[in-house]
Amino acid sequence: MSSIVLGVSRVRYETVTYFRSPDAVFFTFLFPLVMLGIFTAAFSAAGNIGTNPDGTGGISVGAYYLPGMLAAGMLLSGVQNLAVDIAGEKGDGTLKRLGGTPLSPTSYFIGKIGQVLVTGVLQAGLLLLVASVVFRIALPTDPARWLTFAWVFLLGVITSAFLGIALSAVPRSGKSATAVVIPIVLVLQFISGVYLRFDQLPEWMQNIASLFPLKWMAQGMRSVFLPESFASLEPGGGWELPTVAIVLGVWLAVGLVVGRLTFRWIRKDR
Q: What keywords are annotated for this sequence in UniProt (predicted)?
């Protein structure tokens, strides 16, 4: 219980530290919002997506890309943010100093995951607010859809946080962390239906993306914000929400186990 209490007390510290880092705020917190604005401004002239042959129906470009940006925000807040942050703390000696205090790895993890949850909720709320007010994107009114949003978001954020902790063991130094982590995150976004329409990607690329959690987070979010008619464009012909839960649950377990086994207050090769 003392580890849990100490971990919860670190959430505020981790959150304040996060917002004091301008590069982290831009590239993880505001980046999905910036990209949604760019896509909306650049491609709105092409007309709605999914229109009927007579030109009716369909949804705006902004409405189509909103689910992908929400999923990308979850990945950035968890995987990219924590992987770079923890690797940096390991490189500058912060973790070594913390290892000499009563702080346990469990408390440290709780602080980091709590920070991801707080910033993830704020990010999603800001993104939805701007989408509704500025870009005039109609949000769902069905409570069942918001319930789906809640569990996909919560499961996706926690999964991303654990994977970020696990990935932080890969960079050999804090200076190389961004060079290692950002390309991985960027490639996943391109092949998982965030910046490109997933139904228009080559089948082999779709199959690769299906092995990773971002594709399923984006698909879960599309089930919330897109019309039901768009479900037929998914590879399985539907939203496959049970599969979304299973895949994210498996990756959560992988991140938890790998993160706990590889975490060290100092690098093992030092």
A: Antibiotic resistance, Cell membrane, Membrane, Transmembrane, Transmembrane helix, Transport
